[in-house]
Amino acid sequence: MKQTLFIQSIGLPVLLVLGQTESAWALQSHGAPEGIYVHQMAHLLFMGALAYLYWHTRRSPVLVSKGWKYLQLFCILLFCWNVLAFIGHTAFEHLVATDFIQRESWGEQLAPPLSVTKVLYFISKMDHFLYVPALIALVIGLRTFYLEARMEAAR
Amino acid sequence: MIGLPLLPVITIEFFGSGFAIVLSFMALRYAWSLVRLQPDNFIWGFLFSFCIALAAFSLSRGVGHMLRIILVYSDHGAIWKKLSPFSGGFNTMLIISASAVTIYYHKGLQAYKAIRSKAEMLTAVNSQLATSAEQLRQLNTHLEEMVDERTRNLSESEKKFRNFFEKSKDIIYFCDINGTITNINPSGRRLLGFNASENSVNFHDLFNNPKDLHHYLRQLLENGSVSDLEMECTGKDGTTRHILLSANAIYDPNDAIIGCEGIGKDMTRMKTITEQLISHEKMASVGQIAAGVAHEINTPLGIILGYTQLMMDDFKPDSEIGVNLQVVERQAKACRRIVADLLKFSRQAESVKAPIDLNKIIEEVLSVTEHTLHIHHIRVVRRFAAELPLVYGDGEKLHQVFINLFNNAQHAMEEGGELIVSTGKTAENVLVSVQDSGSGIPDAIQNKVFDPFFTTKEVGKGTGLGLSVTYGIVQEHNGAIEVESPVVDPITHTHFSGTAFHMRFPTTDKKNVNDEEHQ
Fold first, then answer.
1. What stretches of B346-465 show up as alpha helix (H) in DSSP?
2. Given this model, what pLDDT does residue B166 score?
């Protein structure tokens, strides 16, 4: 079950990405696109890890504290953030210089006409609406654990 | 056409990054507090590691975003271009680190669970060991006291049952499946007539009646116990005893009988007393019948005798009729004697009573009969007690008692022997025993010797009224007579052949007391 999940979440995208390489060298050089590929793979790996953590905390009967509910919420939000970040990075890769107006200035805009890629990029730039709530959920969850543990220690 | 301004997005990105850094370090702080609070908790350890990776990522990413915004929008884009790969690389590396921590959480948790399970098991075992150690310590502390107490209780219990076993007047025995007695108390040994040195005595051999033995064994086998079985047994010393027996079978762990244990009560004396009571009742009944018959016969017999004597005056003594009348007179007188004896037996004869010294009475009778006894090679032994209390009685009748007993003794010792006449006294009675060394009286007829007309003599040699008359006279004197055959020495318990008649007469003092009570 866990292996299947691992293959589906991480292994398969990795295989697909690697399958596109044209040749294999004994000492492989690392070109410019490799950085974004690795970063995207890292997002996929993180999504898989978060999914597993969510699944495990849900199925473990001993993890019944209210703190775990917040931790599960953190997993969901951070998983969504990863998806959004992945989309944002991908969208950015498809944008060119002409898609921006007044680039690298405070008046920077996405040039019309707006496309799906541009809108996705725009939305993904506001990923902190997911990332910050996710961290808030994590803080609340850990605080709950801490208070419970302290009460237990006091007892 | 208007473009989509990115300033709000950039603003959100800038402040969001700052918030993210702050929040991630808050999370790290709580995780650190948890680890400090419960250092052995693996999950807190995992969350702490995860928070480190996440805080590092948030810091790297946040600082990177903020630097980018500051540098790019302040015309220092060239610097950012140099820093950008490092920021991106750090971000990627830290995302992977956070992922790796999460992935290894799985294996770590499994190991933690296994260790915790073992630890809990060890804790439980340790707790049990501690409990056991405490119990052992307490046990050890009190062991000596407990051993002492239990030994004392056991000793008391053993002493109690041993005392009961040793002091009981009844037979208490244990025997194996074959009936061999494995243990028996002193009363049992005494009653059954064997000593402690005898090893192999079979209880089953003591049964006189095979039917009793069969019943005993069958009851044990079928019911596991025997209750109130009356058995007659002959001990090793030849004494016949009547035992009331109750026994239980002893079983092994497989419910197989391996022996039995039982208690026997000696009922010999009780049985003798019961038989004597029955005999007394019978004798009383017979006495009443005899008295009635004697009265009825006495009158016509007197008439027959009177008319016979009148007729004898009318005929010459040597004439045939005169001779016949003499025979009739003689037989009528014989009948009168018998009737007189019957009346004596039934205590209907008149008597004149006065205080009497029995030693003197016996001596008077012996002075008459001793010569005859000597002729029959019978030696008379006198064992008279000195200063014998007086007995309130009829001297003539008491003479009759001893004459009858001495005559019987003489008949019992046709080949000669020894006649022991002894007297004694107790607080209330005068005791007299007449003992011969003759052939004795079989057990079967001992209860009949006092019956009227019961005799073992040949026809014509005795009427069978001698002992009946004796019995009647003793009863008339409020005394008692018992027969013992063979004779047992009261001290050595040795058996002698012969017969002893033991009599008991109340002394005059007791008689006076009884009279006063009646008045």
1. 358-375, 395-412
2. 87
Burial (0-12, 13-18, 19+ Cβ within 10 Å), A45: buried
Per CB-CB distance under 8 Å, the chain B contacts of A132 are 16, 19-20, 23
The interface residues of chain A toward chain B in range 16-75, judged by CB-CB distance below 8 A, are 35, 38-39, 42-43, 45-46, 48-50, 52-53, 56
Mutation choice for B interface testing from A145, A150, A155 by most B CBs within 10 A: A145
Stretch B10-22: mean pLDDT, rounded?
94
> Which residue range(s) make up the domain with A50?
2-154
* pLDDT score, position B518: 45
C-alpha distance from A45 to closest chain B C-alpha (Å): 6
Q: Which residues pair with B434 in a beta bridge?
A: B421, B501
Q: Are B419 and B406 spatial neighbours (Cβ–Cβ below 8 Å)?
A: yes
Q: Which helix (H) or strand (E) holds B238?
A: none
Give the whole-angstrom CA distance, residue A79 versus residue A92: 20
Handedness of CA B31, B33, B37, B40 (dihedral sign): positive
Which chain A residue has the Cα nearest residue B74? A105
Give bridge partners of residue B266 from the DSSP assignment.
Answer: B243
Quote the pTM value.
Answer: 0.43
pLDDT in tens, B420-461: 999 999 888 999 999 998 888 888 788 778 877 777 777 666
Domain count, chain A: 1
Contacts of A149 in chain B (CB under 8 A): 34, 37-38, 41, 44
Confidence of residue A132 (pLDDT cuts 50, 70, 90): very high
Nearest of A150, A147, A153 to residue A67 by alpha carbon: A147
Per-residue pLDDT tens digits for B26-71: 999 999 999 999 888 888 888 999 999 999 999 999 999 999 999 9
Cα distances (Å, whole numbers) of residue B453 to B459, B460, B466? 11, 12, 9
In degrees, to the nearest 5, what angle opens at C-alpha B450 toward C-alphas B449 and B452? 105
| Burial class for A128, CB neighbours closer than 10 Å (0-12, 13-18, 19+) | buried
Say yes or no for a CB contact (<8 Å) between A122 and B6: yes
- At B133-152, the pLDDT tens digits run 988 888 888 888 888 888 89
Q: Are A138 and A68 in contact (CB under 8 A)?
A: no
ipTM of the complex: 0.80
Distances (CA, A) of B226 to B175, B204, B215: 14, 14, 9
Start-end of H helices in B386-465: 395-412
Residues 6+ apart with CB under 8 A from A2: A52, B106
- Total CB pairs under 8 A between chain A and B: 137
The two structure tokens encoding residue A5: 């999940």
Q: In sequence order, what are the beta bridge partners of B176? A: B259
Would you place residue A128 in the very low, low, confident or very high pLDDT band (cuts 50, 70, 90)?
Answer: very high
Distance from the A38 Cα atom to the nearest Cα atom in chain B, whole angstroms:
7
Torsion of CA A48, A50, A54, A57, to 10 degrees: 110
Distance CA B69, CA B72 (A): 5
Say whether B103 and A35 touch across the interface (CB within 8 A).
Answer: no
CA angle B301, B304, B309 (to 5 degrees): 125
Model confidence at B347, in pLDDT bands (50, 70, 90)? low
pLDDT grade for A26, boundaries at 50, 70 and 90: low
The pLDDT score that the predictor gives to residue B488 is 80
Q: Which of B279, B287, B280, B399 is nearest to B343 (CA)?
A: B287
Chain A residues whose beta carbon lies within 8 Å of the beta carbon of residue B47: 142, 145
